[in-house]
Amino acid sequence: MNRFTIQLDEIKAAYAAEPNPTLEVRLERIGRIEKMIKANEEKICKALTADFGVRNPSETRLAEFGMVSQACRFVRKNLKDWMRPVQMETPSYLSSSEAWIENQSIGVVGIISAWNYPVQLALLPAISALAAGNRVWLKPSERSSRTSGFLASLIQEYFHPTEFSVSTGGVEVAEQFAALPFAHLLFTGSEATGKKVMRAASENLTPVTLELGGKTPAIIDSTANLKEAAQAIAYGKLLNNGQTCIAPDYVLLEANQQDAFIKELQIAAQAQFGNPDELTGPIDERQLQSWQDLLSDAINRGANPIPLLQKSGEDQQRFEPVALINTPTEARVLHEEIFGPVLPIVAVENSAAAIAYVNQKPNPLALYWFGKNKKHLQEVLQETRSGGVTVNDVFLHATVETLPFGGVGASGMGRYHGKAGFDTFSHKKSILDVRGFLGTNLLKGTKPARPPYGKKTERLLRRLK
Q1: Residue 416: what are its φ and ψ, rounded to 5°?
Q2: Which of 204, 259, 360, 416 lies 20 to 30 Å from 311 when distance is taken between CA atoms?
Q3: Residue 252: which H helix or E strand, with range?
Q4: Using omega within 30 degrees of 0 as the cis cutoff, is the peptide bond preceding 217 cis?
Q5: What whole-number distance in Å separates Cα of residue 289 and Cα of residue 115?
Q6: How far apart are CA 391 and CA 295, in angstroms?
Q7: Burial group, residue 299, by CB count within 10 angstroms (0-12, 13-18, 19+)
């Protein structure tokens, strides 16, 4: 028995002493998360800047704190309704009986969060798990070590370790963490690591939610406003310098749109991220090297790079955002998740060809479509598979608390955000209160089906047809 097993047993014991926390207890815990963030915004911003080198506080407030605050408000508004039993219809042969579903907490929820949004991706699933009445144990990413360490210290300050616990550390800690017998385990990260997490969890039959990523396409229809599409895609690609699981990974458009779109893309990128203080840095040297390797591979195979920003000598970034055209199909950048400021632009013949291109690849976490042709939009929605879709913009489907967030196929499994998160971390207990006809024992429950078989059995079988 190692220290992690002992710690989990302690949290489970605390949960067993309070397996059905009241609405007030749940909301008070979520309120502590709100207070924790609000009281420490400036310090968290500084920690994130230390991790990324450059991380504008406004970007952090939008992408991290704003999402957390919105989730807390939504839970506070709706949790009472979510906790209520749900009455269900009964079949005619049980018409006097009553059926309902009760939402029960499940126990200790494990969360392995990612480095790219180390506050949001740690706390959003925690909010859902606490709302469902569970205890939480978090393993934040070691790659955002300063933010993860500071967040851990804050959680330890605001929560008892049997309510909301945190363990920091590297790969060895993550491997031991994933192998623990949690009631549910949520992982956010790469597909390769997600497979390892799922294998480890399978030893305990631990249910998993995997939030992965993949190659999110941005489809520009022939009817699109290129200026508006370029502005949205520039923002989506360069927010957090592309280190976003639902960032546009590549663009599909018709060949006659390419030159005009690239011009608008450069204008938009310069207008939004021309200030070097507003373009987030790579999380570490490994990430920077990954961008350089993908770009070099594409160029060596014949792709043409197009800089997206105009920089003077003293403003040079460690890596300059770039679009790629004429990229050979075998280039790695068209097959691997980029997670950075490199944007391949692929010319296709028409909308049908764009759909076919998307469907040749594993299902992405998100898809973006720009245009006015409703027929083409419906074809894209019906004929492609992705975790979610935003039409004529980027990201926003993931910010709507009423919409479940998650992947499909290679981009993940399971959903959270809003009620979807509450449902993920709840057990839907089915309950049937068996009653006889008009309050008597007549035709009650299984009586008509019990041997010896005869006329009453035949009557029941006819009724069931």
Answers
A1: -150, -165
A2: 259
A3: strand 250-254
A4: no
A5: 17
A6: 29
A7: middle
Structure confidence by residue, pLDDT tens digits, 27-69: 999 999 999 999 999 999 999 999 999 999 999 999 999 999 9
Q: Return the biggest CA–CA distance within the chain.
A: 94
Beta pairing partners, 210: 187, 413
From the list 45, 245, 254, 337, the catalytic residue is 245
Neighbouring CB atoms inside 10 A of 19's CB total 13
Dist. CA 224–CA 221, nearest whole Å: 5
* Ramachandran quadrant class, 351 (left: phi over 0; alpha: psi -120 to 50; beta: rest): alpha
Rounded Cα distance, 11 and 17, in Å: 10
Structure tokens, 78? 């709706």
Three-state DSSP at 163 gives: coil
pTM over 0.85: yes
Could you identify the residue written with the tokens 């976003």?
Answer: 244
Owner of token pair 């990260």: 189
Cα dist. 98→95, 102, 244, 272, 450 in Å? 8, 13, 47, 59, 21
Token pair listed for 244:
């976003």
The two structure tokens encoding residue 24 = 């007030």
The identity of residue 39, as a single letter, is A
Task: For residue 366, give the amino acid letter.
Answer: A
Q: How many CB atoms lie within 10 A of CB 390?
A: 21
The verdict on whether 314 is a catalytic residue reads no
Distance CA 360, CA 172 (A): 36
Whole-number Cα distances in Å, 257 to 219, 253, 263, 374, 436: 12, 7, 10, 19, 70
To 10 degrees, the CA torsion angle through 132, 133, 134, 135? 130
Helix (H) or strand (E) holding 370: strand 366-370
Active site residue 142: no
Of 152, 147, 123, nearest to 29 by C-alpha is 123
Q: Are strands 86-88 and 98-105 parallel, antiparallel or unpaired?
A: antiparallel
Residue 367 CA to residue 233 CA, distance in Å, equals 12
Could you read off the pLDDT of 82-122 as tens digits, one per residue? 999 999 999 888 878 999 999 999 999 999 999 999 999 99
Q: Which residues contact 58 (CB under 8 A, 6 or more apart)?
A: 278
Could you say which of 163, 211, 264, 401 is catalytic? 211
**How many whole angstroms from its chain centre is CA 299?**
32
Would you state the pLDDT for residue 457?
Answer: 86
